[in-house]
Fold:
Amino acid sequence: MIEHVKPADIEKRSFEIISEILRETGKELDPENELVIKRVIHTSADFEYADNLVFSEHAVTKGIEAIKSGCDIVTDTQMAKSGVSKTTLARLGGEVHCFIADPDVAAEAKERGVTRAVVSMEKAAKLDKPCIFAIGNAPTALIRLKELIEEGVFRHEPPLVIGVPVGFVNVVESKEMFLDCSVPYIIARGRKGGSNVAAAICNALIYQITR
Structure:
């Protein structure tokens, strides 16, 4: 039976349905992480994220505090960048960067025989501002990001890393290796993820400040 829902109430009703299904399955979410998990489910219609998303201690709180302080966000794809609420982030003093398509990144990646994702992470490490990293596509970006953190090359260590690359080659491995990283993280274990999931997590943090 079709529900008649006003356009302005569709998202609210969607979250109500998500909450109902989680309750029916007996799944209890950590209150700190609840809104992030529900927004990812809302984006993907995939309830496995209630189990797949792994949070380091107080990662959500630390991410929200960083955004409140005006930090920027770095993504590994233009798709993830386009999905982040940039106008809302800008009101908090932040912006979104994605260097994957920059000509200098492409040229260096070709010369060195590495992925553009690797070089884009190296370029982002030179930014003179704290940045949350949201990786939704390239495991090589997540791997290189962990290396850069361990090498201590960041001018400002990331206040949060969102690691949700999707796929088959080195995807699971890149996520698992990040679980012992020193920085706060939100990781989607397994093969699932994507740019839409990375953007959804960013927005879940932003909306807890602005809504």
Remarks:
- The CA atoms of residues 74 and 124 lie 7 Å apart.
